[in-house]
Amino acid sequence: MVVAMLKVNSKRTIHLLAKSSFKASRMRNLFAIIAIILTSVMFTGLFTVATSLVASIEESTMRQVGGSAHGSFKYLSKAQYDALKTHPDIKDISFSVVLGVGENKELAKHPTEIRYTSGENNAKGMFSMPTTGKLPQNDDEIATDTLVLKQLGVSAKLGQKVTLDYSLAGEKISKTFTLVGYWTGDKVMQASQAWVSKSYVEKQLANYKPSKQGYDVGLINADVNFKNSFRIESKLQKVIVDSGFSLDDIDYGVNWAYTGNGESLDISTIVATVGAILMIAFSGYLMIANVFTISVANDVRYYGLIKTIGTTPKQIRKLIRRQAMWLCFIGLPIGLLVGYLVGMMLVPIVLSIMNTDVIKISAHPLIFILSSIFSAVTVFVSVSKPSKIAAKVSPIEALRVTDNSAGSKRKIKKGTKVNLWTMAYSNLARNKKKVVLVSISLSLGLVILNATYSIANSFDMDEYLSRSIMNDFAVGDVSNFNVNLNYSNQDTLSEGFFSELSLQEGIESINNIYFTEYEVPTGPRFVDIPKQLAKEYGADSKKVEALERYAQQPKQLLHLYGLDEGALQKLILLHGK
Prior knowledge:
alpha+beta
């Protein structure tokens, strides 16, 4: 006799079955929601910390660079700027024109550039937009930061008189301005800006012929932003070529603060990120899959019963997935919110370990989009196997199913003492596969916590700084730290100064570096240097050509350094002695 099963096609019936099962499994729902929340918390926390870390490091580096623009075109004429600015790849472009540098004695230790800016976008991009007052409009107006005002002995109040000294075409100029705007100065930035009006700059430069020799006085420096920060250098080069120029005609600079400005992605970073995502996904999978597997084992007779009335395996899988979707709607929003709050608390801790004073909490939409996608995928992958198990249950098997694996033979144990420990061990041995999965699920959380702690504490500030400076701090003549001041072989630090310095508390050793410069005639060896550099270090053709042109000049400016024994010992010798 053949028994034909009636196929239930009603979507409403499946919905009602899913709803009734959902309401009946309150304890399962609670644990499933907790598992979904924990999974989404881990994903959201990871993406929040990662994006905030990138944003904080980028902004900290931007302050050192002196701007937030993706890149810049340097030393432009008006005609060149007009040709470049209309390129369709450019999202926005702004510019500034240098008039000179502050030569006041008070500014010797604080580089100050006197510029005209094209507007607020340019000033904001250079972190030099007045927070009090405005940008200059008239010839006698100026805006600058509090560090410049402090050096000049001027109080930060609108209407104060500010006198700046600078040189133009060899002529010393002193001009007194009225302060119309100021902002809080940043010691990290290489130079402060002193904004003056467009009309004042144009009048001063009316008879001035700009050149690229020395400072870029009178030439346009354009800051450029694209739609994204990937492959910035390639985009800058494309704009130059498409605008009818060669790469030798236009100088450009890439803002190295952006993590995506490289021509190739960092493989180690990609591997670490993918590894963290997979670990979290696997952890979430184990939690959610275990909850639903236990639920299916408990409700196996229920699934056998609804199969008896004609429910197909496909409809049973759909029933379980629908319940998982409802659980996602409940657990995901809570997990995203809690995860973001956890990430906000972790970011300052991680950044404090890295010793950066810029803390920027990112709220990028991708944090929540990626967290939602990865969490939802993890949930639906997790319920895939339990739903297949439920779909395979036959009505007859449902009546005799147990937690033992199918086909397993009972072993009769003789002479075994019965107590809580032996009963617990016997219960674990009934389904070894489940024991392994649960054990991995419990231990994986500790692995993630331990890995996170290890990564956060693996940053060594001393090791990081050792690549830039070999001692705790450097002392030198002011011309060594201010690029705007010329060095002309003058004596700097005296022996008497070193004697006084060595007597200061905490000074263990002083390692001296000596420097001088002078011109030497160009010889045959200079001509071969560019080729040697290209051979040894793989310098690109543009740099080699520039070096070759430089080597053809009749005289070369030689920078000669001398190091004492203490400094020499800290050098890493690559070749020779």
